[in-house]
Specification:
Blueprint lengths: L22 E8 L2 H12 L2 E4 L7 E6 L2 E8 L10 E6 L3 H10 L3 E9 L3 E7 L5 E7 L14 E8 L2 H12 L2 E4 L6 E7 L2 E8 L11 E7 L3 H10 L3 E9 L2 E7 L5 E6 L3
Parallel strand pairs: 1-4, 5-8, 9-12, 13-16
Antiparallel strand pairs: 1-5, 2-3, 3-4, 6-7, 7-8, 9-13, 10-11, 11-12, 14-15, 15-16
Protein name: VOC family protein
Length: 267
């Protein structure tokens, strides 16, 4: 990962309306919604309230009363991977979805209205990684950042970065900042000169049962304690806590197999 500078305003609050292309929401669709609420509520201190039901039962996770993420129940007839999905802000979801199609991506759901909250589409990039488009109305997206229990970064694990970065640049207008390294294929995606997401090309190291996919990093106060708690709650450690330039990180999965990362930022 790289540094997510500029993603939050004063006191950890993101801007009132997310800039086009900025990560603005993360959502997880599962089979056992009640058990998933219990898991993440215990892990991150989230509380829940009902959200739009266009795609089935759906709740918004709250941290100190402010919206952080969404959880929904998969329809029984939908055989989709259990995975956290980042949403990127758009001023016109229909136009952005059309650009996705024209650049080799696919639209799996929508564009459709989510009651009065906004308009969404769920897409796949040309390599198959799933992401969302969000055109806000009443619901602006994640309402707090920079504190434990909030999304801190989104990173795409894919085969190689160059062609996929070009796709996202065309769709969302990002600038690119490649990491110059002989043994690391990584591109940071920037808006207004500030990194907002990353693309990590890992070649054949991609999990065969997953393929290219986005990984959401959630901030925690203490990565080691959070991992111990996660295991106690029935989660799984995919890569133990390790030090990086950006803090202590662990790759983990929830009881249904949704993969994500825990990030303890440096003091």
């Amino acid at each position: 990962m790289t540094d997510a500078r500029g993603s939050a305003g004063p006191y950890g609050d993101p801007p009132a309306r997310h800039a086009p292309g900025a990560p603005c929401w993360v959502s997880l669709m599962v089979h056992g919604l009640d058990a998933t609420e219990e898991f993440y509520g215990a892990l991150f201190g989230w509380e829940f309230q009902p959200g739009p039901q266009q795609l089935g039962p759906y709740v918004r996770a709250l941290l100190d009363g402010r919206e952080v993420a969404g959880l929904g129940r998969l329809p029984p007839d939908r055989h989709l991977p259990i995975a956290w999905t980042p949403y990127f802000a758009s001023q016109n979801a229909d136009l952005t979805a059309e650009t996705v199609r024209s650049r080799g991506g696919t639209i799996g759901v929508g564009p459709l209205d989510a009651a009065d909250a906004g308009r969404l589409a769920i897409c796949s990039d040309p390599a198959g990684a799933v992401f969302g488009i969000w055109q806000s109305a009443a619901h602006l997206g994640t309402a707090v950042a920079g504190v434990p229990g909030t999304p801190a970064w989104n990173e795409l694990l894919t085969f190689e970065s160059a062609s996929v970065a070009k796709f996202y640049r065309t769709v969302f207008g990002y600038e690119e900042e490649p990491v110059v390294s002989a043994d690391l294929d990584y591109v940071a995606l920037l808006l207004g000169g500030e990194p907002v997401a990353g693309i990590h090309g890992v070649g054949h190291a991609l999990p065969r049962d997953r393929g290219p996919h986005w990984v959401t990093y959630f901030q925690v106060a203490d990565a080691d304690d959070a991992v111990d708690h996660l295991v106690h709650l029935g989660g799984q450690v995919l890569r133990p806590v390790h030090d990086t330039d950006h803090g202590r990180v662990a790759r983990v999965a929830d009881p249904e197999g949704a993969r994500f990362a825990l990030l303890q930022r440096p003091d």
